[in-house]
Amino acid sequence: MLMGKAGQESFRSITRSYYRGAAGALLVYDITRRETFNHLTSWLEDARQHSSSNMVIMLIGNKSDLESRRDVKREEGEAFAREHGLIFMETSAKTACNVEEAFINTAKEIYRKIQQGLFDVHNEANGIKIGPQQSISTSLGPSASQQNCRDLGSDAGCC
C-alpha cells in the first residue's frame, strides 16, 4: 500500500475512493524500512476518514523472512496496533508466511461484526455482498502459509 514519495499523493487520491464501502483493509508496512512504519499514522487517518467507523483494519508488518535486515521491532508494530485498535500480524509475501491467515483473520473479524449487527448485510454499501450459500469445508492439515512458516524455522519471527 505504501509507495515512494513521487507517486504517493496521486496514489492516495485514488485509494480514497476504495475506502468507501469497504468492510476491511490491510495496512502494510515493510519491517526493513522504518519510513514505511513512520507513515502509518497518515495512512490510518486517511482510511478512517474515508470509511465506515466499523471497517476492520489489520496492521501487517511484511518481509518477516528478512529478520537480519529488520528496522522495525515486532513490539513496535504490536504497540501501534494496540494503540489504534487494529489487529496485528507479521507476514512474508515471499514465503507466504501468514499471508492467508491475515485475510482469514480480517474476514473473521468482519463476520464477528456482522453477528453483532454492526454491518447490514442487506446493504451492499457496507462493502459486504452475500453470495450463494455453500457448505463450509474445513481442512485438517496446515495451510500452505503455515507450512511455509515452519519451513523457515522457529526464528523466522512470523509464526
From TrEMBL:
This is Ras-related protein Rab-2B. SUPFAM superfamilies: P-loop containing nucleoside triphosphate hydrolases. Residues 136-149 have a biased composition (Polar residues). Residues 136-159 are annotated as: Disordered. PROSITE patterns: RAB, RAS. It holds the Pfam family Ras. Belongs to the small GTPase superfamily. Rab family. Keywords: GTP-binding, Nucleotide-binding. One of its GO terms (molecular function) is GTPase activity. It comes from the Eukaryota.
